[in-house]
Amino acid sequence: MKRKKLLLLLCFLNVSIILTAQNKFTVNGYIRDAQTGEGLINATIYSPTGKIGCVSNNYGYYNLIVPKGENTLSFSYVGYETQKLQLNLHQDTTISIFLNQNNEVEQVTVKASLIKRSPGPGTINLPMKQIEALPTLLGEKDVLKAIQLLPGVQTGHEGSTGIMVRGGGPDQNLILLDGVTVFNVSHLLGFSSVFIPEAIKGVTLIKGGFPARYGGRLSSVLDIRMKEGNEKKYTGSFSLGLLSSKFTFEGPIVKDKSSFIISARRSYFDLLMRPFMKSITGEAGSVFGYYFYDLNAKLNYKINNKNKLYFSFYTGRDRVFARNQKSEADDFFSEESKSRYELLWGNRTMAFRWNSIYSNRLFSNTTITYNTYKYKLFSESDYKYTDESTNYSSYIFLGYDSKVTNYGVRYQAEYYPVQSYNLVFGGSLLQYSFTPANNKYNVESTGKNVDFEIGAKNLLANEASLFVENRLILSENRWESNLGLHFLIYKQGRKNYYSLQPRLLLKYWATVNTAVSGSFSTMMQPVLLLVNSGAGLPTDSWVPSTERVSPQQSWQTSLGISHAFSQVLSGSVDLYYKQMENLVEYKEGVNFMDTRTDWEDKIEIGQGKAFGAEFFLHKKEGRTNGWIAYTLSKSDRTFEKLNEGKTFPFKYDRRHDFKTTVIYKFRENIHLSALFVFSTGNVLTVPTANYQVVNEAFNFPVEDFFSAEMNFDQNMVDYYPARNNFRMPEYHRLDLGVDFIKKKRRGVRTWNFSIYNVYSRKNLYFIYYEKDSKTDEIKIKATTLLPIFPSITYSFKFK
Is 0.85 topped by the overall pTM? Predict the structure, then answer.
């Protein structure tokens, strides 16, 4: 009986949808940049006749169902001229729209704001124009540096690109480049990210209200989309900075059918250091250097109006190296020594994608992905000595490496049965291969040879997921909901983990410009990062959940209100609360590079919570633009076997975090920019006292215990009253920048001058303590890293 009722209900719903759609037709297609052919993400399409609208997806595709007969459609995108189209609809129609850029967009009154459906609380789309206009460190425009200036996002330490979102750790962010996970996003020990801005089209940060299509992390999704390449003509750019140089070249392979883009960057600190090595080391045979490089490439091919293929590729590496060579000889002996040290880490990602419009109401995307992250550290020395009676040689090699590799396939479809209902569904299959830590030793000397390898064995894991999102608009566009489920199966060894993760987003439009929204999300993270000391350091190792270590889990709820003051100016307030389980921390005093102990024996399992309020005012366009962001938050951790089981603040806990950026077009050819940041200092653990440990094996008279002649320093033990018991002073700085732009016959030339930390604030980077030799008093001392730092960059963009 119950089954019959359910079937009757489903039939009724299907008949209702069919009857609703009888007098309506679908208008679909792509919205693109008229100059380049690039798809525009989140462009707005609106029908005044039907009082309905939609936004384009990540590929510029849109689907709008409008009433039969005469219709006026409006296509708009921030920074572009609005285009209107008159249609007399008697059948489903496919139309691609090309919008022209408008650099003179000023603040205008919002009209029909209901059509621009923002994803909900905790989601921010950041224009690349604003990212590229910000002041820079070492002349490097950086996507992640801009993300750090948003509310709810914390930095790891001075100058780093690591991000911690809403009280989470650096491993809890799903960072995607064209849909492929990037495991390590840092260059230069964290001072620059791996993303070349000239190759990036769109950046979206999701901190809460997660759509069901995303999974595998607890705290955030950073979805970065690469450009597709100019389909109309060949263009390019290059820039020369203090740290690195880069170039980008793009153009059509077959005009309006296929295109490419290639972007490359390399630092040259190693080249600049070579002339000074002898004066620095005092030895002619010494070489020291560091460099990094990035290479992005993307190809696309339009099979027909309904099918398109993409291939995107990224590879990058950091290399720190040192070499030393000495030799000496005369008539009686010869001696030669060589030594080499290298530290290398890097990513490689690939994606092959097929976009298809199956029908006027069904859009699909199939992606095959590959990514790997490798870290390697080694040193080797070779020594030879010969004289009349001796012939001795030795070779020593010490190595440490870590690696994670991932293969996968993903399918996602978007179905539009009626305008008020949108169904997104799909799934993915992934296979992981982990080598958490591996040590190699090879010692050869005259008559002896030792060669062995120890470390964690290679671990395999598999992950499968299914997801469905139901987006529904009710009550004359006043109510909007997105109810989703993300089902994940994770297998490692003989252990299977299952997770059904409900996602809910509700939004109510109180007025045409004001919306109130709430969300609830549950997440599971089966892979985790063993963090040694800081966010994004290459020595951090990725490991899988196992039979002994369960996946991390969280649930988060948020409530927000947003208001559009104009087409380009908006503001929002978001409140959030997050609970996390199965978090991982190293045990006290463990050595992360000691591979004699399995990594599962080095960690403790605990829980955490985070809550806060975020305030955001954002102006995307106009002569003056930028944003103001403020976050009031708290993040704690509790581990049964750490800190005596007492709750302690998370090491990236920041009570107050204020950031503001301003970009001002002083003249058409002079653009000024400034940013100011202020935040509560990081917490860390420091000793407050030390005491003497007396070894019972010592054999000395008791009266000599306090003898001044005895050296007790070797038996002194530091006393730590609590974990993360000390908070650094407040962090703040001001950065300024100016662009001098000049149009040339062959393109546009730009000189950029930036000043990092204008008033040379001595923000603490590292704290240590030492004992005063005269008073025996322990004093805390600090190291600062970056004082005032000017930089200059020259760039040229070809027409």
Answer: yes
